[in-house]
Specification:
It holds the Pfam family Epimerase. This protein is α/β, with parallel strands linked by helices and 299 residues long. It is built from 12 helices and 12 strands. Helix 1 packs across helix 7, helix 6 crosses helix 8 and helix 8 packs parallel to helix 12. The protein starts with a strand and ends with a helix.
Length: 299
């Protein structure tokens, strides 16, 4: 199979490229910079130059391959409307290109705002619909094409896809703690985050593209829920900083932009995903990986 991957040089994307190549597939990776292109070529992947706003490149990549994995996102948390609009346009463009082809189209998604007060399951329908919704309503938009000849798959990733070298949410929590001189958790810290190691996540993506049915909602989750208080405590102890509760109204000022997400309950099950894909996460846990975040040099 020849697979088109957006976000191919990103954190999850780079490991996904490795996973597909190791399994004997060919990869066409979207690259917006010379450095990203060189990295992909060194791995043995083909390169398509472009970015998330280059809709012609997205059409070309989707049309010229046997399946598409959409992992790119602007992640502009200061301007979410910009990120949401770009995400929706990209998903719409790829889905329209694949309509009637029967080819797989996996779209990255998340668990935020789907349900309140409990772990999200694969049966829970994403309520975010329309261009003004979270992520531009891209999950629901993509799955709408399951009835239009696209093997559309929604992959909901844990909020922390962790591993050595990650610069995502956990790295932001560590940076925030260093800057504040304390490690904070929101409220009483009983809300939970799910987690998955990046190599397990990449394997789940490959298995999904190889065989998940149209309309499938998958949870790329290894650890269902870790109390955010426990995450903050591990960070504080590792950095030698006090661990303190933070009023939800002050989360972003006391913890940083990541405080908004750290106050969410983002637990999720993955029993159905494991059974469907034969996926058995076996990578390091978040607790195993935390020392690598704490020892990483500051920016």
């Amino acid at each position: 199979m020849r697979v088109f991957i957006t976000g191919a040089s990103g954190w999850i994307g780079s490991h996904t490229v490795d996973e597909f190549l190791a399994a004997g597939h060919e990869v066409l990776g979207l690259a917006r910079s010379d450095a990203s292109a060189a990295t992909l070529e060194a791995k043995g992947a083909e390169v398509l130059r472009g970015d998330l706003d280059d809709l012609d490149s997205l059409r070309e990549g989707a049309a010229s391959t046997d399946g598409t994995v959409h992992l790119a996102n602007k992640h502009d948390f200061a301007n979410p409307a910009v990120s949401n609009a770009a995400e929706r346009a990209a998903v719409q463009t790829i889905a329209d290109t694949l309509e009637g082809s029967g080819r797989p189209f996996l779209v990255a998604s998340g668990h935020a705002g789907i349900v309140e007060g409990r772990a999200v399951t694969e049966d829970d329908v994403n309520p975010h619909v329309g261009p003004d919704a979270m992520r531009g309503g891209s999950e629901r938009l993509a799955l709408d094409y399951a009835d239009r000849g696209v093997r559309a798959i929604a992959a909901r990733f844990a909020p922390t896809v962790h591993g050595a070298g990650d610069h995502g949410f956990v790295a932001a929590l560590v940076a925030g703690a260093r800057a504040a001189g304390q490690s904070g958790y929101v409220g009483d810290g009983s809300n939970e985050w799910s987690a998955v190691h990046v190599t397990d996540a990449a394997r789940a993506v490959r298995l999904a593209v190889e065989g998940a049915p149209a309309g499938t909602r998958l949870h790329v989750v290894a650890e269902e829920g870790i109390a955010t208080r426990d995450i903050a405590t591990a960070i504080g102890e590792g950095l030698g900083l006090p661990v303190v509760p933070v009023d939800p109204a002050e989360a972003t000022t006391r913890i940083g932009w990541i405080g908004f997400f750290f106050g969410m309950h983002l637990a999720a099950t993955s029993d159905k995903t494991r059974a469907l894909l034969g996926w058995h996460p076996n990578g390091p846990t978040l607790a195993d990986d935390l020392p690598s975040y704490l020892s990483a040099p500051t920016a």
